[in-house]
Amino acid sequence: MSATRTMSLNAFLMATGHHVAAWRDPASRADGGLDFEHYRQLARTAQRGCLDAIFLSDTLAMLPGNLGAVSRMARTEHFEPLTLLGALAAVTERIGLVATVTTSYNDPAAVARSFASLERLSGARSGWNLVTSSNAQEAPNFGRAQHFDHAARYQRAQAFLAEVRKYWQREGVAPVQVLAGASPAGCAFAAAHAEVVFTAQPDLVAAQAFYRDLKARASAAGRDPAQVKVMPGVLPIVAATHDEAWAKYEALQARVLPEVGLSLLGDIAGGTDLSTADLDGPLPALPSTESGVSRRELLINVARAEGLSIRQLYLRMATARGHWVVIGEPGEVADQLEHWFRSEAADGFNVMPATLPGGLDDFVDTVVPLLQARGLFRQRYQGTTLREHLGLSAPPSHPYPQEAGRHG
Protein backbone atom coordinates (compact mmCIF):
# COMPACT_ATOMS: atom_id res chain seq x y z
CA MET A 1 0.00 0.00 0.00
CA SER A 2 1.24 3.45 -0.91
CA ALA A 3 2.47 5.47 2.04
CA THR A 4 0.70 8.50 0.58
CA ARG A 5 -2.72 6.87 0.30
CA THR A 6 -5.29 9.00 2.10
CA MET A 7 -8.97 8.41 2.67
CA SER A 8 -11.95 10.15 1.13
CA LEU A 9 -14.77 11.43 3.32
CA ASN A 10 -18.26 12.30 2.17
CA ALA A 11 -21.14 13.74 4.22
CA PHE A 12 -24.43 11.97 3.44
CA LEU A 13 -27.08 14.48 4.55
CA MET A 14 -30.60 13.31 5.35
CA ALA A 15 -32.77 16.19 6.59
CA THR A 16 -32.84 15.56 10.36
CA GLY A 17 -30.22 12.79 10.44
CA HIS A 18 -29.95 9.12 9.53
CA HIS A 19 -31.34 7.58 12.68
CA VAL A 20 -35.03 7.02 12.07
CA ALA A 21 -35.85 8.73 15.38
CA ALA A 22 -33.44 11.63 14.87
CA TRP A 23 -36.26 14.14 14.42
CA ARG A 24 -37.38 13.40 18.01
CA ASP A 25 -33.98 14.32 19.44
CA PRO A 26 -34.26 17.77 21.09
CA ALA A 27 -31.06 18.96 19.38
CA SER A 28 -32.17 18.02 15.86
CA ARG A 29 -33.99 20.18 13.33
CA ALA A 30 -37.32 18.40 12.90
CA ASP A 31 -38.18 20.73 10.01
CA GLY A 32 -34.71 20.58 8.47
CA GLY A 33 -35.79 18.96 5.22
CA LEU A 34 -37.38 22.20 4.02
CA ASP A 35 -35.00 24.71 5.61
CA PHE A 36 -32.33 26.03 3.22
CA GLU A 37 -30.40 27.71 6.03
CA HIS A 38 -30.12 24.30 7.72
CA TYR A 39 -28.53 22.82 4.61
CA ARG A 40 -26.33 25.87 4.05
CA GLN A 41 -24.87 25.46 7.53
CA LEU A 42 -24.35 21.72 7.01
CA ALA A 43 -22.56 22.31 3.70
CA ARG A 44 -20.34 24.95 5.28
CA THR A 45 -19.53 22.58 8.16
CA ALA A 46 -18.57 19.80 5.75
CA GLN A 47 -16.41 22.25 3.80
CA ARG A 48 -14.77 23.47 7.01
CA GLY A 49 -13.76 19.85 7.61
CA CYS A 50 -12.28 19.63 4.08
CA LEU A 51 -14.63 16.76 3.22
CA ASP A 52 -14.76 15.66 -0.41
CA ALA A 53 -18.48 16.15 -0.94
CA ILE A 54 -21.97 16.32 0.45
CA PHE A 55 -24.46 13.79 -0.87
CA LEU A 56 -28.26 13.95 -1.15
CA SER A 57 -30.39 10.88 -1.85
CA ASP A 58 -33.82 10.93 -3.47
CA THR A 59 -36.90 8.89 -4.38
CA LEU A 60 -39.70 9.81 -6.77
CA ALA A 61 -42.53 8.60 -4.56
CA MET A 62 -43.65 8.58 -0.96
CA LEU A 63 -41.67 6.23 1.23
CA PRO A 64 -43.30 2.78 1.49
CA GLY A 65 -45.40 2.13 4.60
CA ASN A 66 -48.69 3.20 6.08
CA LEU A 67 -49.37 6.91 6.50
CA GLY A 68 -49.27 6.67 10.30
CA ALA A 69 -45.68 5.43 10.17
CA VAL A 70 -44.47 7.62 7.31
CA SER A 71 -45.82 10.74 9.03
CA ARG A 72 -43.62 9.95 12.04
CA MET A 73 -40.31 9.79 10.15
CA ALA A 74 -39.68 13.44 9.13
CA ARG A 75 -38.28 12.15 5.83
CA THR A 76 -41.20 12.72 3.50
CA GLU A 77 -40.73 16.43 2.82
CA HIS A 78 -37.43 17.69 1.46
CA PHE A 79 -36.01 19.71 -1.38
CA GLU A 80 -35.41 18.19 -4.80
CA PRO A 81 -31.65 17.42 -4.67
CA LEU A 82 -30.41 19.07 -7.87
CA THR A 83 -32.28 22.27 -7.09
CA LEU A 84 -30.87 22.34 -3.58
CA LEU A 85 -27.33 21.61 -4.74
CA GLY A 86 -27.58 24.41 -7.28
CA ALA A 87 -28.37 26.79 -4.43
CA LEU A 88 -25.59 25.35 -2.26
CA ALA A 89 -23.10 25.79 -5.11
CA ALA A 90 -23.56 29.53 -4.68
CA VAL A 91 -22.74 29.53 -0.95
CA THR A 92 -19.77 27.11 -1.00
CA GLU A 93 -16.42 27.18 -2.76
CA ARG A 94 -14.76 23.75 -2.52
CA ILE A 95 -17.08 21.02 -1.24
CA GLY A 96 -18.30 18.53 -3.86
CA LEU A 97 -22.03 18.26 -4.60
CA VAL A 98 -23.47 14.80 -5.31
CA ALA A 99 -27.11 13.96 -6.01
CA THR A 100 -29.10 10.80 -6.65
CA VAL A 101 -31.08 10.66 -9.90
CA THR A 102 -32.74 7.49 -11.16
CA THR A 103 -32.45 6.16 -14.70
CA SER A 104 -35.74 4.26 -14.40
CA TYR A 105 -38.09 7.26 -14.46
CA ASN A 106 -36.18 10.10 -16.06
CA ASP A 107 -35.13 11.28 -19.51
CA PRO A 108 -31.42 11.00 -20.42
CA ALA A 109 -31.27 14.38 -22.13
CA ALA A 110 -32.85 16.14 -19.15
CA VAL A 111 -30.49 14.46 -16.69
CA ALA A 112 -27.46 15.20 -18.87
CA ARG A 113 -28.37 18.88 -19.11
CA SER A 114 -29.17 19.17 -15.40
CA PHE A 115 -25.80 17.81 -14.28
CA ALA A 116 -23.97 19.79 -16.96
CA SER A 117 -25.58 22.92 -15.50
CA LEU A 118 -24.64 21.96 -11.94
CA GLU A 119 -21.09 21.18 -13.07
CA ARG A 120 -20.72 24.65 -14.55
CA LEU A 121 -22.49 26.45 -11.70
CA SER A 122 -20.26 24.77 -9.13
CA GLY A 123 -16.92 24.96 -10.94
CA ALA A 124 -16.69 21.21 -11.65
CA ARG A 125 -17.75 20.04 -8.21
CA SER A 126 -20.72 17.83 -9.17
CA GLY A 127 -21.34 14.10 -9.05
CA TRP A 128 -24.22 11.88 -10.18
CA ASN A 129 -25.26 8.93 -8.03
CA LEU A 130 -26.96 6.78 -10.66
CA VAL A 131 -29.66 4.51 -9.22
CA THR A 132 -32.23 2.24 -10.85
CA SER A 133 -35.06 2.92 -8.35
CA SER A 134 -35.46 0.50 -5.45
CA ASN A 135 -38.82 2.06 -4.50
CA ALA A 136 -41.50 0.20 -6.48
CA GLN A 137 -44.03 2.90 -5.55
CA GLU A 138 -42.41 5.17 -8.14
CA ALA A 139 -43.97 3.14 -10.98
CA PRO A 140 -47.60 4.40 -10.74
CA ASN A 141 -46.35 7.98 -10.52
CA PHE A 142 -45.08 7.52 -14.08
CA GLY A 143 -48.02 5.64 -15.56
CA ARG A 144 -46.75 2.09 -15.06
CA ALA A 145 -48.82 -0.66 -13.49
CA GLN A 146 -45.70 -2.22 -12.00
CA HIS A 147 -42.03 -1.49 -11.47
CA PHE A 148 -39.39 -2.50 -14.02
CA ASP A 149 -37.88 -5.86 -13.12
CA HIS A 150 -34.33 -5.89 -11.82
CA ALA A 151 -32.64 -6.98 -15.05
CA ALA A 152 -34.61 -4.51 -17.16
CA ARG A 153 -33.62 -1.66 -14.86
CA TYR A 154 -29.93 -2.30 -15.44
CA GLN A 155 -30.39 -2.71 -19.20
CA ARG A 156 -32.15 0.65 -19.24
CA ALA A 157 -29.42 2.19 -17.05
CA GLN A 158 -26.71 1.05 -19.48
CA ALA A 159 -28.33 2.76 -22.47
CA PHE A 160 -29.26 5.80 -20.37
CA LEU A 161 -25.68 6.30 -19.14
CA ALA A 162 -24.28 6.01 -22.66
CA GLU A 163 -26.59 8.82 -23.83
CA VAL A 164 -25.71 11.03 -20.88
CA ARG A 165 -21.99 10.49 -21.42
CA LYS A 166 -22.19 11.40 -25.11
CA TYR A 167 -23.87 14.68 -24.22
CA TRP A 168 -21.29 15.47 -21.52
CA GLN A 169 -18.43 14.76 -23.91
CA ARG A 170 -19.90 17.11 -26.49
CA GLU A 171 -20.29 19.80 -23.83
CA GLY A 172 -16.86 19.26 -22.29
CA VAL A 173 -18.08 18.47 -18.76
CA ALA A 174 -17.27 15.48 -16.54
CA PRO A 175 -19.37 15.11 -13.38
CA VAL A 176 -18.05 12.31 -11.15
CA GLN A 177 -19.91 9.04 -11.68
CA VAL A 178 -21.20 7.44 -8.48
CA LEU A 179 -23.00 4.09 -8.24
CA ALA A 180 -24.43 2.21 -5.28
CA GLY A 181 -25.75 -1.16 -6.44
CA ALA A 182 -24.43 -4.26 -4.68
CA SER A 183 -26.36 -7.02 -6.46
CA PRO A 184 -24.40 -9.05 -9.03
CA ALA A 185 -25.76 -6.82 -11.81
CA GLY A 186 -25.04 -3.73 -9.73
CA CYS A 187 -21.45 -4.78 -9.05
CA ALA A 188 -20.81 -5.54 -12.72
CA PHE A 189 -22.23 -2.16 -13.70
CA ALA A 190 -20.17 -0.37 -11.04
CA ALA A 191 -16.96 -2.14 -12.04
CA ALA A 192 -17.43 -0.98 -15.63
CA HIS A 193 -18.60 2.58 -14.98
CA ALA A 194 -18.32 3.86 -11.41
CA GLU A 195 -15.67 6.25 -10.17
CA VAL A 196 -17.10 6.20 -6.64
CA VAL A 197 -19.08 3.31 -5.15
CA PHE A 198 -21.35 3.80 -2.15
CA THR A 199 -22.04 0.54 -0.36
CA ALA A 200 -23.63 -0.80 2.83
CA GLN A 201 -21.24 -3.17 4.64
CA PRO A 202 -22.05 -4.02 8.28
CA ASP A 203 -18.72 -5.60 9.23
CA LEU A 204 -15.05 -5.66 8.28
CA VAL A 205 -14.97 -9.12 6.68
CA ALA A 206 -17.91 -8.36 4.39
CA ALA A 207 -16.42 -4.98 3.51
CA GLN A 208 -13.05 -6.51 2.62
CA ALA A 209 -14.71 -9.15 0.43
CA PHE A 210 -16.75 -6.51 -1.40
CA TYR A 211 -13.67 -4.29 -1.84
CA ARG A 212 -11.55 -7.12 -3.28
CA ASP A 213 -14.33 -8.27 -5.58
CA LEU A 214 -15.09 -4.83 -6.98
CA LYS A 215 -11.44 -3.94 -7.53
CA ALA A 216 -10.88 -7.27 -9.32
CA ARG A 217 -13.94 -6.69 -11.50
CA ALA A 218 -12.69 -3.21 -12.40
CA SER A 219 -9.29 -4.60 -13.35
CA ALA A 220 -10.92 -7.32 -15.46
CA ALA A 221 -12.91 -4.60 -17.24
CA GLY A 222 -9.62 -2.95 -18.24
CA ARG A 223 -9.81 -0.15 -15.69
CA ASP A 224 -7.35 1.09 -13.08
CA PRO A 225 -8.77 -0.13 -9.74
CA ALA A 226 -7.32 2.95 -8.03
CA GLN A 227 -9.76 5.02 -10.08
CA VAL A 228 -12.74 3.29 -8.44
CA LYS A 229 -13.18 4.63 -4.91
CA VAL A 230 -15.08 2.28 -2.60
CA MET A 231 -16.82 4.21 0.17
CA PRO A 232 -18.93 2.21 2.65
CA GLY A 233 -21.50 4.07 4.68
CA VAL A 234 -20.67 4.65 8.35
CA LEU A 235 -22.87 6.13 11.04
CA PRO A 236 -20.66 7.53 13.82
CA ILE A 237 -22.05 8.45 17.21
CA VAL A 238 -19.37 10.47 18.97
CA ALA A 239 -19.11 12.01 22.43
CA ALA A 240 -16.40 13.08 24.84
CA THR A 241 -16.34 9.65 26.49
CA HIS A 242 -17.23 6.09 25.49
CA ASP A 243 -20.10 5.98 27.99
CA GLU A 244 -21.55 9.29 26.84
CA ALA A 245 -21.55 8.09 23.23
CA TRP A 246 -23.44 4.94 24.16
CA ALA A 247 -25.89 7.00 26.18
CA LYS A 248 -26.57 9.07 23.03
CA TYR A 249 -27.19 5.91 21.06
CA GLU A 250 -29.49 4.38 23.66
CA ALA A 251 -31.51 7.61 23.90
CA LEU A 252 -32.11 7.51 20.14
CA GLN A 253 -33.07 3.84 20.23
CA ALA A 254 -35.59 4.52 22.99
CA ARG A 255 -37.32 7.06 20.71
CA VAL A 256 -38.01 4.56 17.89
CA LEU A 257 -41.76 4.15 17.52
CA PRO A 258 -42.73 0.50 16.83
CA GLU A 259 -44.89 1.38 13.82
CA VAL A 260 -42.00 3.34 12.33
CA GLY A 261 -39.52 0.52 12.96
CA LEU A 262 -41.83 -2.01 11.30
CA SER A 263 -42.44 0.26 8.33
CA LEU A 264 -38.71 0.80 7.84
CA LEU A 265 -38.09 -2.93 8.07
CA GLY A 266 -40.84 -3.66 5.55
CA ASP A 267 -39.34 -1.14 3.14
CA ILE A 268 -35.88 -2.70 3.35
CA ALA A 269 -37.49 -6.14 2.93
CA GLY A 270 -38.78 -5.05 -0.47
CA GLY A 271 -42.18 -3.70 0.49
CA THR A 272 -43.26 -6.64 2.66
CA ASP A 273 -46.06 -5.92 5.15
CA LEU A 274 -44.82 -7.06 8.58
CA SER A 275 -47.52 -5.31 10.63
CA THR A 276 -49.20 -8.58 11.67
CA ALA A 277 -45.98 -10.43 12.50
CA ASP A 278 -44.94 -11.30 16.06
CA LEU A 279 -42.48 -8.55 17.07
CA ASP A 280 -40.59 -10.93 19.33
CA GLY A 281 -40.52 -13.75 16.79
CA PRO A 282 -38.07 -14.34 13.94
CA LEU A 283 -38.18 -12.65 10.56
CA PRO A 284 -40.54 -14.71 8.38
CA ALA A 285 -39.64 -15.95 4.92
CA LEU A 286 -39.74 -12.98 2.56
CA PRO A 287 -41.23 -13.09 -0.93
CA SER A 288 -39.08 -12.19 -3.91
CA THR A 289 -39.06 -8.55 -4.90
CA GLU A 290 -38.13 -6.26 -7.77
CA SER A 291 -37.23 -3.50 -5.30
CA GLY A 292 -33.83 -3.16 -3.60
CA VAL A 293 -32.29 -6.63 -3.92
CA SER A 294 -28.91 -6.19 -2.19
CA ARG A 295 -30.27 -4.41 0.88
CA ARG A 296 -32.98 -7.07 1.31
CA GLU A 297 -30.29 -9.78 1.26
CA LEU A 298 -28.24 -7.86 3.83
CA LEU A 299 -31.31 -7.71 6.08
CA ILE A 300 -31.92 -11.45 5.81
CA ASN A 301 -28.26 -12.28 6.42
CA VAL A 302 -28.05 -10.12 9.57
CA ALA A 303 -31.29 -11.60 10.96
CA ARG A 304 -30.13 -15.18 10.39
CA ALA A 305 -26.53 -14.73 11.49
CA GLU A 306 -27.48 -13.10 14.81
CA GLY A 307 -30.83 -14.78 15.46
CA LEU A 308 -32.59 -11.43 15.81
CA SER A 309 -36.29 -11.03 16.47
CA ILE A 310 -38.29 -8.60 14.34
CA ARG A 311 -38.14 -6.03 17.15
CA GLN A 312 -34.36 -6.42 17.51
CA LEU A 313 -33.97 -6.27 13.75
CA TYR A 314 -35.93 -3.06 13.29
CA LEU A 315 -33.98 -1.45 16.12
CA ARG A 316 -30.79 -2.46 14.34
CA MET A 317 -32.01 -1.04 11.04
CA ALA A 318 -33.39 2.13 12.66
CA THR A 319 -29.85 3.34 13.28
CA ALA A 320 -28.36 3.16 9.79
CA ARG A 321 -30.48 0.80 7.63
CA GLY A 322 -27.77 -1.88 7.56
CA HIS A 323 -24.73 0.38 7.30
CA TRP A 324 -21.77 0.17 9.69
CA VAL A 325 -22.32 1.87 13.05
CA VAL A 326 -19.40 3.11 15.19
CA ILE A 327 -20.01 4.39 18.72
CA GLY A 328 -17.41 5.90 21.04
CA GLU A 329 -15.16 8.80 21.91
CA PRO A 330 -13.32 10.47 19.01
CA GLY A 331 -10.19 8.32 19.28
CA GLU A 332 -12.22 5.10 19.14
CA VAL A 333 -14.08 6.24 16.05
CA ALA A 334 -10.88 7.39 14.33
CA ASP A 335 -9.22 4.06 15.22
CA GLN A 336 -12.04 2.08 13.60
CA LEU A 337 -12.03 4.16 10.42
CA GLU A 338 -8.26 3.83 10.19
CA HIS A 339 -8.46 0.06 10.69
CA TRP A 340 -10.96 -0.41 7.86
CA PHE A 341 -8.97 1.91 5.60
CA ARG A 342 -5.61 0.23 6.23
CA SER A 343 -7.21 -3.23 5.98
CA GLU A 344 -8.35 -2.44 2.43
CA ALA A 345 -12.03 -2.56 3.26
CA ALA A 346 -12.53 1.03 2.07
CA ASP A 347 -10.95 3.91 0.20
CA GLY A 348 -12.97 6.25 2.35
CA PHE A 349 -16.38 6.60 3.93
CA ASN A 350 -19.83 7.96 3.26
CA VAL A 351 -20.37 9.53 6.68
CA MET A 352 -24.00 9.34 7.84
CA PRO A 353 -24.60 11.59 10.88
CA ALA A 354 -27.22 10.09 13.18
CA THR A 355 -28.62 13.53 13.98
CA LEU A 356 -28.26 16.90 12.31
CA PRO A 357 -26.66 19.30 12.78
CA GLY A 358 -25.02 17.85 15.92
CA GLY A 359 -23.79 14.57 14.45
CA LEU A 360 -21.93 16.32 11.64
CA ASP A 361 -20.49 18.94 14.00
CA ASP A 362 -19.19 16.19 16.29
CA PHE A 363 -17.52 14.33 13.44
CA VAL A 364 -15.92 17.38 11.81
CA ASP A 365 -14.77 18.95 15.07
CA THR A 366 -13.46 15.88 16.90
CA VAL A 367 -12.80 12.96 14.53
CA VAL A 368 -11.51 14.72 11.41
CA PRO A 369 -8.65 16.47 13.32
CA LEU A 370 -7.43 13.08 14.56
CA LEU A 371 -7.45 11.63 11.04
CA GLN A 372 -5.56 14.71 9.84
CA ALA A 373 -2.98 14.40 12.61
CA ARG A 374 -2.39 10.75 11.60
CA GLY A 375 -1.78 11.74 7.97
CA LEU A 376 -4.89 9.89 6.85
CA PHE A 377 -6.88 12.88 5.62
CA ARG A 378 -6.09 16.25 4.08
CA GLN A 379 -5.62 19.32 6.27
CA ARG A 380 -6.64 21.66 3.46
CA TYR A 381 -8.04 21.35 -0.05
CA GLN A 382 -5.32 20.99 -2.66
CA GLY A 383 -7.63 21.51 -5.61
CA THR A 384 -10.94 23.10 -6.49
CA THR A 385 -12.85 20.29 -8.25
CA LEU A 386 -14.46 17.12 -6.95
CA ARG A 387 -12.20 15.07 -9.21
CA GLU A 388 -9.16 16.68 -7.61
CA HIS A 389 -10.50 16.03 -4.11
CA LEU A 390 -11.01 12.34 -4.94
CA GLY A 391 -7.74 11.93 -6.85
CA LEU A 392 -9.59 10.96 -10.03
CA SER A 393 -8.22 11.46 -13.50
CA ALA A 394 -10.29 12.79 -16.38
CA PRO A 395 -12.83 10.26 -17.72
CA PRO A 396 -12.15 8.42 -21.00
CA SER A 397 -12.58 10.51 -24.14
CA HIS A 398 -14.87 7.91 -25.73
CA PRO A 399 -18.35 6.78 -24.64
CA TYR A 400 -18.43 3.77 -22.34
CA PRO A 401 -18.51 0.59 -24.44
CA GLN A 402 -21.78 -1.31 -24.52
CA GLU A 403 -19.97 -4.60 -23.86
CA ALA A 404 -18.84 -3.42 -20.40
CA GLY A 405 -22.41 -3.16 -19.15
CA ARG A 406 -23.62 -6.61 -20.10
CA HIS A 407 -24.45 -8.83 -17.16
CA GLY A 408 -25.11 -12.12 -18.94
Automatic annotation (TrEMBL):
Residues 389-408 are annotated as: Disordered. Keywords: Flavoprotein, FMN, Monooxygenase, Oxidoreductase. InterPro entries: Diverse_substr_monoxygenases, Luciferase-like_dom, Luciferase-like_sf, NTA_MOA. Residues 20-340 form the Luciferase-like domain. It comes from the Bacteria. The keyword Oxidoreductase applies. Belongs to the NtaA/SnaA/DszA monooxygenase family. This is LLM class flavin-dependent oxidoreductase.
